[in-house]
Amino acid sequence: MADRLPPLYALRAFEVAARSCSFTRAGEELALTQSAISRHIRTLEAQFDCKLFERNGPRLRLTDAGRQLAGQLGAGFSLIEQACQPFRAGPRQLRLKAPSTLTLRWLLGCLAQFKAEHPERAIQLSSVWMDLDSVDFASEPYDCAILLGNGYFGSQVQSCKLFDEWLIPICAPALLGDQPWDAQRLAQAALIHPSSDRRDWQRWLRGTGMLGQVPFDRGMLFDTLDQGMAAAIAGHGVTIGDAALVSAELQAQRLVLPFTQAVPTGDGYYLVWPAGSAWQAPIEALRSCLLQRRPVPMAVCST
């Protein structure tokens, strides 16, 4: 069986070249010459009896066969890397990906406690902005991630729910006024959207039965909860956010609740990691710490 497999170094050269469609950059990454990369590709094309790249002068483009092979090899080499990591000399940090707003409003405190309780376990945090939370463990350099989602992240991914997402409107105290808020008053207010697709206001209005009474296709658009909250604190309108993540502003009375109804979105924040991970022990320790510090939103009425 082994003598029918192509040379591993040729497969590796192709996988690296396929990522950039450049023999030069592949050579730089693997410390080989461009001609050596080219020879490895020709070896594979001869063995497979098909073209892996289409050459148009200096430009390269993967063929259909090349794209199929590159995808499979990328996943395969990622598994090999994960298998080898625990046996490399010296300790390595657990690599964690998390949304930026969640990191600032909750996760950093959790990680400080984790470091105090587990000084022997180090975590490398990558806090990134994600319009829709996602991770690809085959191509991204992470061992685990915290994502907002519905609980299904693929058959090869394990997960643990940390807490549910509940949406609640918030505004500056000066905007609250003396009169009670209802659909008519909200329809006249300036809406602030913490995401460009306006999904949070749409969900809350549907959950409270106001969807047909309050137009949500207007107002200011922002990328994150923090940006929307900053605009609301400055008095520019009513924004909406996760009840757990806005607790600090509510307790400090920088923001107040024009409505007390919180609406569950059906999504939640999950710790996710690849099935069969070699880093199960530190992931389990992290999961225990996160569950102990689950945020508790201020008391609001659910619909």
Which key features would you list for this structure?
11 helices, seven-stranded mixed beta sheet, Arc Repressor Mutant, subunit A, D-Maltodextrin-Binding Protein, domain 2, 303 residues, 3 domains, alpha/beta, 21% strand, two-stranded antiparallel ribbon
Would you kindly provide a brief summary of this structure?
This protein is an alpha/beta fold and 303 residues long. The chain is 40% helix and 21% strand.
Outline the structure in words.
The structure is a single chain. With 303 residues, the protein is an alpha/beta fold. Helix 5 links the parallel strand 3 and strand 4. The longest helix is centred in the N-terminal third of the chain and has 21 residues. It has three domains: 86 residues, Orthogonal Bundle (Arc Repressor Mutant, subunit A), CATH 1.10.10; 98 residues, 3-Layer(aba) Sandwich (D-Maltodextrin-Binding Protein, domain 2); 101 residues, D-Maltodextrin-Binding Protein, domain 2, CATH 3.40.190.10. Helices cover 40% and strands 21% of the residues. Helix 2 packs across helix 3. It is elongated, with a radius of gyration of 25 Å. The model has no long low-confidence stretch (mean pLDDT 89). The chain contains eleven helices and eleven strands. The strands form three sheets. Strands 3, 4, 5, 6, 9, 10 and 11 form a seven-stranded mixed β-sheet that branches.
Strand-helix topology:
Blueprint: H1 8-20, H2 23-30, H3 34-48, E1 53-56, E2 59-62, H4 64-84, E3 94-99, H5 100-117, E4 123-128, E5 144-149, E6 157-170, H6 173-176, H7 183-188, E7 192-193, H8 199-208, E8 220-221, H9 225-233, E9 239-242, H10 247-251, E10 261-274, H11 280-292, E11 301-302
Parallel strand pairs: 3-4, 3-5, 7-8, 10-11
Antiparallel strand pairs: 1-2, 5-10, 6-9, 6-10
Helix pairs in contact: 1-2, 1-3, 1-4, 2-3, 5-11
